[in-house]
Amino acid sequence: MTTIGVFALQGNVREHLAMLTSVGVEALAVRRPAELERVDAMVLPGGESTTMYKLARSFELFEPLQKRIADGMPVFGTCAGMIMLADEITGGISGQETLGGLDVTVRRNAFGRQVDSFEADLEFPDLGPGFDTPYHAVFIRAPWVERVGPGVQVLSTVRSGPAAGRIVAVRHDRLLATSFHPEMTGDARLHGYFAELVRGL
Ligand code: GLN
């Protein structure tokens, strides 16, 4: 059976584990290198990217994660997890490291301090019939994607309002990232999409 791990040192871990279980994969909380070795893929949850990279360093998961990503492990990064996957970030704290692997530039807290959180209906035009109806997304101090490298597919942008056109979901090969929290609304379509990606390898 396909096993997908959730980086479990910080962030919305339980919700992601539940969503993964609901789409029929084995879900494992990953806190140590030995647990990372047991998984086929990883979810990097939302939380606080500045804390996340420090914890990944102190629990000796940073380098093993980087190596697995370089070796082609699929990863789904959500919110702070998207920041962790980005090759380049703006608005980070001094010395903030990312795992990298995804050729994008991500701006932290991009939607502005006054807008701590908001919700929006998104479309995923390239993801097929399962995505015919809008995807309701929750954004919390969310980043957006400011630059996409060659080969990076833009999956969704904000439809309206001051942030219209901003990129909030991308995929490059085995790496998937969203600005929002797909684990918070009970809509498991993106976890299902990621599980299919992993199963198809
Ligand atoms: N603003 C957070 C960060 O920079 C991300 C917020 C979130 O994951 N909800 O890490």
Automatic annotation (TrEMBL):
Record bears the keyword Lyase: yes
Pfam families, per the entry: SNO
InterPro entries: Class_I_gatase-like (IPR029062), PdxT/SNO (IPR002161)
Coiled-coil stretches: none
Pathway: Cofactor biosynthesis; pyridoxal 5'-phosphate biosynthesis
Record's keyword terms, sorted: Glutamine amidotransferase, Hydrolase, Lyase, Pyridoxal phosphate
Catalytic machinery residues: 79 (nucleophile), 181 (charge relay system), 183 (charge relay system)
Keyword Transferase set for record: no
EC numbers: 4.3.3.6, 3.5.1.2
Domain of life, per lineage: Bacteria
Catalytic activity: aldehydo-D-ribose 5-phosphate + D-glyceraldehyde 3-phosphate + L-glutamine = pyridoxal 5'-phosphate + L-glutamate + phosphate + 3 H2O + H(+); L-glutamine + H2O = L-glutamate + NH4(+)
Family as reported in the entry's similarity comment: Belongs to the glutaminase PdxT/SNO family.
Quaternary structure, from the entry: In the presence of PdxS, forms a dodecamer of heterodimers. Only shows activity in the heterodimer.
NCBIfam families linked: PLP_synth_Pdx2
Protein name: Pyridoxal 5'-phosphate synthase subunit PdxT
Lineage: Bacteria, Bacillati, Actinomycetota, Actinomycetes, Propionibacteriales
